[in-house]
Amino acid sequence: MATPLLGTGYGLWIDFTTPIGTNDRGTEANYKLVACSTETGMDFNRDETDTSNKCDEGYSSSVPGLANWNFNFNGQAVSLVVGETDKTNYQKLLELAKAGQTFFSKLTSTEDEDYIREGKTYITSFNETQPNQAVIAVTATFKGVGELFITPEVVTP
Predict the structure, then answer these.
(1) Which long-range contacts (CB under 8 A, 24 or more apart) does 24-28 make?
(2) Residue 55 lies in a domain
(3) pTM of the predicted model, to two decimals?
(4) Is 105 part of a structural domain of the chain?
């Protein structure tokens, strides 16, 4: 029987140090976990290119077009402990969004990397909500640039 994967052990990591112009993927040592996510996700879409013409006898036809993808982050605003260098927080996300900087991002397990979605990204939207008597909520959308790298399928007997 197949075992469901729970999303609890997965997080969004960013590498804003590795140069994007000379590298296809981020550097493992430079990746930092974005602290305190409540939900992360990925969207992948492929446009279609219409190839319909008068020879199609009234039916449309198309071929695969450009692909696009993004990561989504929902979390809570937290301050990091002084000296905690393996994580980053909402403040860094806002800095990257404001600067319009492209950087490496990946979704992966916090325990092992048997599930990886990775690529170059920039932040297209960032939102903070300060509710009364509740933790500040943060959302951000990371637009993928170029190819999305994924772990290959592993089938166990």
Answers:
(1) 24/147, 24/149, 25/104, 25/118, 25/149, 26/104, 26/105, 26/106, 26/118
(2) no
(3) 0.88
(4) yes
